[in-house]
Amino acid sequence: MDILIDQFFNVAIMQKAFPLLLKGLWMTLQLCVAVILLGLVGGLFVALGNLSPRRWLRWPTIVYIDVFRALPPLVLLIFIYSGLPFAGINVSPFTAVVIAFLLNNSSYYAEVYRAGLISVAKGQWEAAASTGLSRSQSLVYVVLPQAVRNVLPDLLSNTVEVVKLTSLASVISLSELLYSADMARSVTYNASPLVLAALFYLVLLWPLVRLVSHFQRRLAA
Amino acid sequence: MERFLETFFNPVVMAKYAPDVIAGMGVTLAIAAAVIVAGIALGLALACLRAYRRKVLNFFIICYADIFRALPPLVLILILYFGFPSIGIRLSGAMVLFIVLSLTLAAFAEEIFWAGFSAVEKGQWEAGIATGLGFTRTLAFVALPQAVRLAMPPLVNRVLAITKMTALGSAIGVVEILSASTTAQSFSGSATPLTLSVIAYLVIFMPMVVLARWLENRTAWKKR
Amino acid sequence: MAKRPMLEIAALEKRFGDNTILKQIDLKVAEGELVFVIGPSGSGKSTMLRCCNRLEQPTSGDIIVDGRNIMAGTSRDLAQMRLQIGMVFQGFHLYPHMNVLKNVTLAQRKALKRSKAEADVRAMDMLERVGLAHKADAYPSELSGGQQQRVAIARALALDPKIMLFDEPTSALDPELVGSVLKVMKDLKSKGMTMLVVSHEMGFARETADRVVFMDGGVIVEEGTPDEIFGAPKAERTRAFLSRVAG
User: Fold this and answer.
1) Which pLDDT score, from 0 to 100, does residue B223 have?
2) What is the mean pLDDT of chain C?
3) DSSP per-residue letters across chain C
4) Boundaries of domain holding B83
5) Does B77 reside within a domain?
């Protein structure tokens, strides 16, 4: 029992690692903001292309969504970070992470938006058009707010996934939360910093996970 | 263009390392299959237990599901792989990957099946119990089949997302597709093995994406 | 009554593949006139109405509103022209995420570019007119069907349209709520609004319409004053329809 506590819940080591992990958390948060915002916007455009009546817009977005949903995000990340330099394109770890995860999560967000946009009754588009609003005005003021509300739980649970995804950045040595914790682990030969990182993630994400469950229950009722 | 092809589609490199990547595909598929079976079975069992509405038990089930939905799998993988040996539990990388991904999938599957149970009309339960089936048999023969059907589309999506995470094995020395190709990349000094890994993943997961899309469209149809 | 036509439908055709929904429709609605369109379901009357602001794209023909052909021009021109054509739907189609006031001001502000103050004043006027000024802060889900439809009428009126199209405005309402909507329509007519109405409310047609048009199988079978159509229909199809509806 003692060895268990010493290995995983060593308070002294946690205290020592805390400042380093806090720095890592800051990087994680920066990554989250960049990846989530870009994903939300990019996903919307992909979804709109996907629902377009124009075939030359629809087919490429279908392929885009399916390919990037099929590829593991880590594979995309390694490909961009280690593969592109062979073609003379060097990207910083931060940029590599943002690009890789944007490709991945914009496809996921796009699927969510698509479901939301489809769920809004056709009559809403018609009512908006009949009052002289343009297509884009109808989308922005009338249809999109309803679409987002209808799929809020899915948008939220996808966002939780994106935050978790940022931990993969540690694989290419970007000093975010998990990387910092693993650094501390390898220096101290003790897993407590990793447990501390897990606690950080829990504090960050447990409320969101609860919220997702709460929304889902309300929609089911 | 030529340089691009030479870098990412070098035929000599492809031929040389394709066997390694194909072997990696075998590992990926084996772990993925084990994770799917174990994760879904555990998730379904937990959702069924939760239907009995025992307060203490449900509290633990909900906590488990919440924690494993909130934690990035890579964190758990590192804790198990690097932390457990020092308390005398030495697990292979593949075993760590299997355990963590199964537990993660189970947490999501439990929530998805539970949502399915919640969506089954109260009248269905009442009808089952009124016809003398008793709670357990009503659960098994009336509620469960309906819950499973409702759960299919989100479950397939989640299975897809989690089996893709077998790529995390590359961080702890599991020789699956990604680590086979990164190893090949450093030996060959070419990006082509990475292209091979992309192809390998598309071969495995594209059918699942198409299946997920088909299931979603089918249920969307029925709603109308 | 030699008033200029506010709406002119000329040689309108609508086909879906091999299926012809509308054949050579010609119809004029004069300024201040209320034209009432009746006919069995599937006769094409709603499609004709929806062609008038191009929610349904006509296959050929012309739609001329106050001298301007809405079949010509870019999509921006179309949005401008739709401002002059108010439409009321069977299903109301209020925006559920906005309160009543915002429902009525949205297009005023975004399409007509009115200021917020101006749009609010205009909206309150129109809500007053349909008897719902006290519901300005309510959300559509808190209103009865009849109230929602009256808000939808106010939403269209607030844009100062030259003509109002009504697509079965009372068909989705409980019987006891129909009267309140018809009353608003009658009031509109008395204030000189030009109206084209597709509906099954024969009593209302008899009382208020200037002209009644009977459609069947995608063509206009017969048109005339309410007395002519309801009192002495000439065509056999009209007689059969009216006796079915009455019986």
Assistant:
1) 45
2) 93
3) --PPEEEEEEEEEEEETTEEEEEEEEEEEETT-EEEEE--TTSSHHHHHHHTTTSS--SEEEEEETTEETTSS-HHHHHHHHHTEEEE-TT----TTS-HHHHHHHHHHHTS---HHHHHHHHHHHHHHTT-GGGTT--GGGS-HHHHHHHHHHHHHTT--SEEEEESTTTTS-HHHHHHHHHHHHHHHHTT-EEEEE---HHHHHHH-SEEEEEETTEEEEEE-HIIIIIS--SHHHHHHHHHHH-
4) 2-219
5) yes
